[in-house]
Amino acid sequence: MNVISTTVALLSLAQATTKPANCGEMTSLATDGRAAFSMPLKNTKVDAEVTGIGARVVVTQTFQNTSKTPLEAVYTFPLPANAAVDRLRADVGGRVIEGEIRKKEEARAIYNHARANGQVAALLDQERPNIFTQSIANIMPGAEVKVEISYVQTLKYEDGEYEFNFPMVVGPRNTMAAPDPGAIAPPTLAPGVRSGADVQLHMTIDAGAPVVSFRPMLHQVRAQRSGDRLVVDLAKANEIPNRDFIFRYSVAGSQVKESFLTHADENGGTFAVLLTPPKPDATIRAGLREIYFVMDQSGSQEGFPLEKSKELTLAMIDQLRSDDTFNVATFTTTNNTLWPEAVPADSAHIAEAKRFVKGLQANGGTNILGVVNLVNSLGVARGRDRIVLLNTDGYVGDEFEILQEVRKAQTSRWFTFGIGNSVNQFLIDAMAAEGRGGSEVVTLAETADRAVTRLAKRLRTPVLTDVQLSVDGVQVQMAGDAVNDVYADQPVVAYGRYLRPGRGKVVLTGKLGGQPYRREWDADFPARGNAGSAISSLWARQRVDHLLRQSWTAARGGKTEEAAAIERQVTDVALRHHIMSPFTSFVAVEPRVVNVGGKQRQVRVPVDMADGVDMGGRSSDRKSMNGLALAPAGTQNGATYGLIQGLARGGTGGGGFGAGGGGKAAAKPASTVATVNAGVALSDLAAAPAKPFEKAAKSLREKKGKLEVSIRLADLKDETLAKLKKAGFKLDEKDKALPVVYGTLDAKDLAALCKLVEVLAVDPIE
């Protein structure tokens, strides 16, 4: 196992430089506002080339070791939920090593061998379609390693507007139901504290027509035209990576350009088709509706996000028709509905619903699965179509279980609205796809008007349903058996592959307003296509998505025969087309040995708190973020407790939102405990319910004899070091910046050492 010497100083960082009584040591911020401790991630640089409705993006992460000992850096970060990651390369002192795609377990074995052998190695794992882990082994003191990740994606296009989205931070997650909490919840910096890393972004848009308008949603940009191309850069050189970069734009003519593109190589040919269905007849009226407004009122919605959710829901309630029925459901740790069943949309019920929505407060955990099961369990009135409108940030770890349940809800159509500046886009989009609805992201910086207008338009006009895209005359394999339902002003985008060249006819069929719809398009499938390998990567990514949707249990590592069969198919597609998947990883190894013996410390890179997340305050100011996680009953400082639990378990609990209690435990008397800002009182630590022995890595608990360990502490006071010595720990070295100590310990003394309140975590040294 590895040493996890993540920065413990961030437990008690605060803007103030004074130290309250009875509190752990506090580390001040540098004068430029950056955290005054070393972190291996120095910078992230993003270069995006947007062409038409697609984009090729290169992300370069620069890791630097400013310490005196070799390091292994582990960084959990997001990428777009629909990205097809098809290349990785590492730059080690000017030597470029190309990454290889391997089965996940093979890539890990190669990486582990290189790490133990003292070679610089990079491993990229996919934890979720939008969450990845980058591991870099044997970064030597003073050395710098750059890792370049490249992916392609299809941009969102709707209502005459394109959207490019680059996520920058993994928001805090409720990991209580997650099968792999440590993989999706990186250590998170305390509110008001930022990392030393920054992000740069450069984008060139070649839309085939001049960009006539654009809207950067959450960042300031510099934009200039070069012919029909638009060049965009972040305005700030030291931008904090704590919110998504969302850039929306329109081009001359507004209508998306229809196209048919091909690419052929040793794996055969692949193609992409983009078609625009005809405008539906707006005079056709949708049937009787039963509408459920479902709202997230968990702790992560505290403050401005919940107010934005209320704004959206209240505006959508105003769109109800007199012949609708409706209900309001909320989810936190528990799930509730305003009424036992849907009621008529008359003035009295609408007024009652609005009072209920306005009075909601944020607290507890994010139990989306529970509310999905609740809605699914309620019968739909005969003759009505159920429509579910769900608002959330999606900060959960049991996405696959949620999607499996939404997939069962064939009697409902789900529309999901991501509320916030760094939402879980994968879950938001996938719930809408499984629920045959649509998805929107409403940032904290914009009004809900556009989202409400688009929703109203969707619900009052017919949908192109039962969509099938096939090819006559040429044998092809489509990425999926069917295309998602298509709403007004949305194009049909589909990918397929062909084994032999020829001339064929692309056929799109479906039902529009209940009437049969068919469109044909003559197309060539050449032996050599020149659209580039991106078509192959996008086909493979869409094929993987289709396979996983057959059973989401396969995505979470299910052990059934069906899950095993899907895993084999996904792995074959991913390896053949050189892309990331749940079962494939990229690995790159420097041939030279730079660290004889391979001994090193592991540092989990802490991430900035997601912008707008207020996990414990009551302020409606979206910049006021006074807590990280909800504390258990009897614990005063919820922010500190959540971060301690995350770090003490190597990051496995970071971002957990607690299981209830409303997030506002009764405060202890002032004479018992004192806290200032994010400072932590040791008496608070003693009240934490975690079992002391759990502070030690699992591998240490199973060993006997002499142990080489690193211990993460609340402080480095002389009395703390004396306690360690008395517990049997022999000190070899200490890191004042973190604070972490390194040394040896007899296995029989491990349990006693873990009982010390100053000890936050004990990890092995290889």
Draw up the topology in text.
Blueprint: E1 41-51, E2 54-64, E3 71-78, E4 84-92, E5 95-98, E6 100-103, H1 104-117, E7 119-128, E8 131-139, E9 144-154, E10 156-158, E11 161-166, H2 181-184, E12 198-206, E13 211-216, E14 221-226, E15 229-234, E16 245-251, E17 259-265, E18 268-275, E19 289-296, H3 304-317, E20 325-331, E21 335-337, E22 343-344, H4 347-358, H5 368-377, E23 385-392, H6 399-408, E24 412-419, H7 425-434, E25 439-442, H8 449-460, E26 464-472, E27 476-478, E28 492-498, E29 502-512, E30 515-525, H9 534-550, H10 552-555, H11 561-577, E31 584-593, E32 601-604, H12 638-648, H13 682-687, H14 698-701, E33 706-713, H15 718-726, E34 730-735, E35 740-746, H16 750-754, E36 759-764
Parallel strand pairs: 1-12, 3-32, 19-20, 19-23, 23-24, 24-25
Antiparallel strand pairs: 1-2, 2-9, 3-8, 4-5, 4-9, 6-31, 7-8, 7-31, 10-11, 11-16, 12-15, 13-16, 14-15, 17-18, 18-28, 20-21, 20-22, 26-29, 27-28, 29-30, 33-35, 33-36, 34-35
Write up what this structure looks like.
With 766 residues, the protein is α+β, with helices and mostly antiparallel strands. The chain has 4 domains: 239 residues, Immunoglobulin-like; 143 residues, Immunoglobulin-like (Sandwich), CATH 2.60.40; 172 residues, Rossmann fold, CATH 3.40.50.410; 72 residues, Peptidase S8 propeptide/proteinase inhibitor I9 (Alpha-Beta Plaits), CATH 3.30.70. The protein is built from 16 helices and 36 strands. The protein has an 8-stranded mixed beta sheet. The relative contact order is 0.17.
